[in-house]
Amino acid sequence: MSHIASRLSAVKPSASMAVSQAAKDLAATGVDVIDLGLGEPDFPAPAHITEAAFAAARKERMLYTASLGTVELRKAIVAKFKRENGLDYAIDEIAVANGAKQIIFNALMATVEEGDEAILPAPYFVSYPEMVKLFGGVPVTPACPAENGFRLTPEVLEAALTDKTRWLFLNMPGNPSGAVYTEAQLKALGAVLAKYPKVMILSDEIYEHILFDGRSFVSFGAACPELRDRSLIVNGMSKAYAMTGWRVGYAAGPRDLIKAMATIQSQSCTSVSAPAQIAARAALEGPQDCVAEFRTAFERRRNLVVEGIAKINALSLDPPEGAFYAYIGCAALIGAKTPAGKTLEDDVAVAKYLLDEGHVAAVPGTAYGLSPFFRISTATSDGVLAEAVKRIGEAVSKLEF
Question: Over pLDDT 70: what percentage of the chain?
């Protein structure tokens, strides 16, 4: 039997991946399952992006690249931050990795000591606390309830900060909630952070282009330039360009942190694959019509789900402000009895019931640190979403309250 390192004992596998696998297992038995567990756009990557990678691979040798990414791609990222976010960075302040998750992983490996705390406003992306724990850190997860728009407030932040705090994570628009921060709200958080000079800020902005109801995006870096020397702005290609499988994430941050992350990457995966970097550059420098088209589709789908859930009395859903998820409140279902006579004791049981009875795969809110909710991805077709909402409603109607 293999010896498994003790540091893994506190780390759980990705909840969204686990739900997706459960859906696949059920589907393998012949059941028609709608899998809304993973946040993955159903669009193909735009043709000009894939063609750029294919064309280069056909005529060039695909060699190792610099650990931080090719100069050409990092220049494109510098230009993107300037053009879209009003941020000025040099090439040696840019890192490219195999997805935004690896960017975060590298940053934590480079900075977190045993016992360091990371503030992760709940609901948070499922991987944040597990990565913190992997490096001996302690996740601090203050609740940001629906009545606060799932946003961290200065008061809650102040209460969570200690002399052990190493990081504050922000995610906007948020996964799973879709919450978006205004410039004023970010500045108010920045005013608190200014009093804690040892705290670093990781702003995960990978959903920045998926905003609804005419909202405009403000990067944390633009709202709080005075915190530039301790802010890591994280982004990637997966969501805006429907490039999940290409695995290209990137970040801008302090030179010393970026250099440390480069060391880690050079001794682990070396770099992102060369064709994927070529594709990423084509995405950033090419026509941006696809980004607007995807956003329009995601907003239409958001509306469809919000309207459908509003017709199910026992569920609640405030319209998400961005991203492509619906974080659905299910407090009224707790304590209800299923047709089989089982009591739904928590949102884990609710998600299991929806899979077993409604054949819809959703992720329980406990995975995001705030219950009772369940998350569904709205990054699939209108028809599939309409059927999923119908099935959820039918499953709820069978419960005894």
Answer: 100
Please report which helix (H) or strand (E) contains residue 138, including its range: strand 138-140
Q: Is 364 helix (H, G, I), strand (E, B) or coil?
A: strand
Query: Strands 117-119, 94-97: parallel, antiparallel or unpaired by DSSP?
Result: unpaired
Could you tell me the residue range of the domain that residue 275 belongs to? 48-285
For tokens 């459908």, what's the residue?
A: 308
Q: How many structural domains compose the chain?
A: 2
Smallest Cα–Cα separation from 37: which of 388, 394, 318, 375?
375
Q: How far apart are CA 232 and CA 203, in angstroms?
A: 6
In which residue are the tokens 């931050």 written? 81
- Give, in degrees to the nearest 5, the angle at Cα 14 between 42 and 247: 50
Tell me the C-alpha distance between 357 and 339, whole Å: 9
The whole-angstrom separation of Cα 287 and Cα 241 is 11
- Residue 39 pLDDT more than 90? no
This prediction's pTM? 0.96
- In our burial notation (b when 16+ CB lie closer than 10 A, e otherwise), range 95-114 reads bbbbbbbbbbbbbbbbbbee
Say whether 226 sits in a helix, a strand or coil.
helix
Task: Say if residues 275 and 62 touch (Cβ distance below 8 Å).
Answer: yes
Task: Report helix angle 255-266 to 100-111, nearest 10.
Answer: 100
CB-based contact 28:246 (threshold 8 Å): no
How far, in Å, CA of 322 to CA of 298, rounded? 9
Choosing from 285, 312, 345, the residue where a domain stops is 285
What pLDDT score was predicted for residue 40? 87
According to DSSP H, which parts of 99-197 are helical? 100-111, 127-134, 154-160, 183-193
Q: What is the pLDDT of residues 243-282, one digit of tens each?
A: 999 999 999 999 999 999 999 999 999 999 999 999 999 9
The pLDDT of residue 198: 97
CATH code at position 40: 3.90.1150.10
213 SS3 class? coil
**H/E segment holding residue 201:** strand 200-204
Contact between 331 and 372 under an 8 Å Cβ cutoff? The reply is: yes
| 116 domain-assigned | yes
